Each structure stands twice: as structure tokens, then as C-alpha cells.
């Protein structure tokens, strides 16, 4: 089969790799119909995650069909259409029993495309299938469902829920990429007074407005001043960091009000300065986190009911063998306007539209 293989920092290719097979009785093998690229994949290609070994197939988000299961798998069977979660959960360790699947100590956590071969391939082996794939209702399309593998649970759990967004809050989201936009969309569920989006790209700020941001600021426009002006000098109740750069994290700590919360989502590859000389007396709470995906069933139900704007985040679609082109477009988002790029075979409806 073919897969997108990491060969070391700055080196990758869509190439032949061995077919996956069931190794453990809790495994499932999924034929990948739809996958996507995450900002974390770009961090891997830069060398920010040294635990990813050369030869690893990247990717941790997919929709597909079960083709084989181990003897202990009970919740899905061959032929089922499923969402492959970015997090694998053993279901037995202390953290899994607390639904903190991202911290699994039984061989799970974020392993796909990091510690084992991932989803940017024709087939993928998914460990602990009973808790790591979700059967999909027919009402949810593949392009919508694949956004529930990572970005929506991550934005909702690590950003909105850990930031304790409440009615009447002022929420500032730094970074209007896919994760930041999903944070804007899910923060709206809690009725904040206003949401402020910060980004360098005008196209992403426009997308932020479409998804519910009440005000936007380019990072070069002193966004902390805009936040101060809108809050009578107090600062934002919740600031969500969705970039993963030292400058963006430090900006978040300058925008938060006394007693406020900074929820860091971004994947950081280098140190950021924590200015405790300014923050120690402000009663600020700073949270970090790897997504647990315990919210996936809820988000899936909301998507089936048309309550999440998933489709609005997909800006580019590619065939699987266009993986290298898709990475190029996604990596140059400021130039291409890319938000989420999706790779998969066209649906019957899409084929009909192209033929017309």
C-alpha cells in the first residue's frame, strides 16, 4: 500500500509501505477513505517532536471502513464505517478509567502517526479499537466526520472547557487556524459576551468572523490594546493559545485579566518565557493539555444535528496520491488561504458535479 512517510526533519514522501495487520486481539484494521493534515504534522516535519522515528507513516485523523478486527473487539465489525480518533485508549489504566485517554499508560494516548504508523495511508492499524474508533451515522459525511478526529475535540476540551468559558465572558483566541476556528465555534456554545480573534492572516480573520468572532485583530496591531479597549482595561476572561509559538503564548499572558484563565492548546517546540514577575500577583490560571477525546460522542451527535460548522473549515480537497501537494498547500496557508485540507476519493455526488 501507499503511505506518507516521515524520513527525518524536512524529508517525507508518499511511498510504498507494508500493509498493516492485526497484531493484538484488540486491534482493528481500517481502510482509509478520508484523512487530513494537522498542524502537528508540520511540527513533526520540522523536527519539533524527536520521538517520531524516521520511517513512520504520519497522520492521526481518518474516516474509513473496518476490514478486519481482533478476537476481543466487540463494538465494531468489518464493513462498519468509522471515525478513527487521534487518541487510542486502553480502557484499563488509571487515566482511561478517568476518561483522560490522552494520558493513557496502557499503550495508548497519542500514538498514531507518532509512535506507530498513522492514518495518512490506504490502510491503518488502530489499537484498542473498542475505545478508539466510533461508528458513524449515515447522516454525517466523511469530510465533516474527519474534523471530529482531532481539531474539534482538541479545541473544545483543551481550549473551551479547560478555559472554563462562561456566559458573559470575553474570550480571546490567538491563532485562527483550524484549531483556533474550532475553539471560536465551540466557545459560542457557552454564550460569551464577545469573542476576539487574533491572527497574522487576513483570510483567517475573515473565517473567524464567519464562525462567530465579534472582533478581530492582526497580531501586528497590538491586539492586547484592542482587548483592553473592549474590556475597560481589564483584559480577557479567557485567552486561548492556538499557535504553539513563544511569542503567541507570551501575548496571551499579556491579554488575560486578573483572575482570568489562559488555556494553551498549541504544540510548542521551543521554550516560552513565563513572566512570573508580572503574573504572580494576578491570580491567573494557566492550563495545558493533550486532548482526551472524551467529548467525541457529544460532538458527533451535534454534528449529526447540524449544530457544528464543520464543513466551513474545509477549504481544499485532494486525492490520496496528491498528499505531497496537499502538504505544500497546507504549509503555505498564509499564501493559499488553506484552513483544513481533506484527502479522499470523491463521493458519487462530487463525481456527478465534475462530470456536469
UniProtKB/TrEMBL annotation:
InterPro entries: ADH-like_C, ADH-like_N, ADH_Zn_CS, ER, GroES-like_sf, NAD(P)-bd_dom_sf. The keyword Nucleotide-binding does not apply. Residues 10-343 form the Enoyl reductase (ER) domain. GO terms for molecular function: oxidoreductase activity; zinc ion binding. It comes from the Bacteria. Keywords: Metal-binding, Oxidoreductase, Zinc. CDD domains: FDH_like_ADH2 (cd08286). Its cofactor is Zn(2+). Belongs to the zinc-containing alcohol dehydrogenase family. PANTHER family: NADP-DEPENDENT ISOPROPANOL DEHYDROGENASE, ZINC-TYPE ALCOHOL DEHYDROGENASE-LIKE. This is Zinc-dependent alcohol dehydrogenase family protein.
Amino acid at each position: 500500500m501507499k503511505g506518507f512517510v516521515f524520513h527525518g526533519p524536512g524529508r517525507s514522501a508518499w511511498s510504498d509501505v507494508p500493509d498493516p495487520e492485526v497484531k493484538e486481539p484488540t486491534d482493528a484494521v481500517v481502510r482509509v477513505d478520508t484523512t487530513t493534515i494537522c498542524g502537528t504534522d508540520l511540527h513533526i516535519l520540522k523536527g519539533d517532536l524527536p520521538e517520531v522515528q524516521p520511517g513512520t507513516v504520519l497522520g492521526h485523523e481518518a474516516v474509513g471502513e473496518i476490514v478486519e478486527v481482533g478476537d476481543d473487539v466487540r463494538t465494531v465489525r468489518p464493513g462498519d464505517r468509522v471515525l478513527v480518533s487521534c487518541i487510542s485508549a486502553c480502557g484499563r489504566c488509571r487515566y482511561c478509567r478517568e476518561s483522560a485517554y490522552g494520558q493513557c499508560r496502557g499503550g495508548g494516548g497519542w500514538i498514531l502517526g507518532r509512535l506507530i504508523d498513522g492514518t495518512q495511508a490506504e490502510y491503518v492499524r488502530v489499537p484498542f479499537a473498542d475505545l478508539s474508533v466510533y461508528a458513524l451515522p449515515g447522516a454525517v459525511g466523511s469530510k465533516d466526520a474527519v474534523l471530529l478526529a482531532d481539531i474539534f475535540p482538541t479545541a473544545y476540551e483543551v481550549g473551551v472547557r479547560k478555559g472554563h468559558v462562561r456566559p458573559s465572558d470575553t474570550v480571546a483566541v490567538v491563532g485562527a487556524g483550524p484549531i483556533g476556528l474550532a475553539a471560536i465555534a465551540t466557545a459560542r456554545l457557552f454564550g460569551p459576551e464577545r469573542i476576539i480573534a487574533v491572527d497574522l492572516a487576513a483570510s483567517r480573520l475573515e473565517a473567524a468572523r464567519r464562525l462567530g468572532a465579534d472582533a478581530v485583530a492582526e497580531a501586528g496591531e497590538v491586539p492586547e490594546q484592542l482587548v483592553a479597549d473592549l474590556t475597560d482595561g481589564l483584559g480577557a476572561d479567557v485567552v486561548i493559545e492556538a499557535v504553539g509559538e513563544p511569542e503567541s503564548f507570551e501575548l496571551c499572558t499579556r491579554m488575560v485579566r486578573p483572575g482570568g484563565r489562559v488555556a494553551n492548546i498549541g504544540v510548542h517546540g521551543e521554550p516560552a518565557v513565563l513572566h512570573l514577575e508580572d503574573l504572580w500577583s494576578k491570580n491567573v490560571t494557566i492550563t495545558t493539555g493533550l486532548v482526551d477525546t472524551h467529548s467525541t460522542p457529544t460532538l458527533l451527535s451535534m454534528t449529526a444535528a447540524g449544530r457544528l460548522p464543520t464543513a466551513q473549515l474545509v477549504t481544499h480537497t485532494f486525492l490520496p496520491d496528491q498528499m505531497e501537494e496537499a502538504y505544500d498547500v497546507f504549509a503555505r496557508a498564509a499564501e493559499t488561504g488553506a484552513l483544513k485540507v481533506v484527502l479522499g476519493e470523491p463521493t458519487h455526488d462530487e463525481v456527478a458535479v465534475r462530470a456536469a
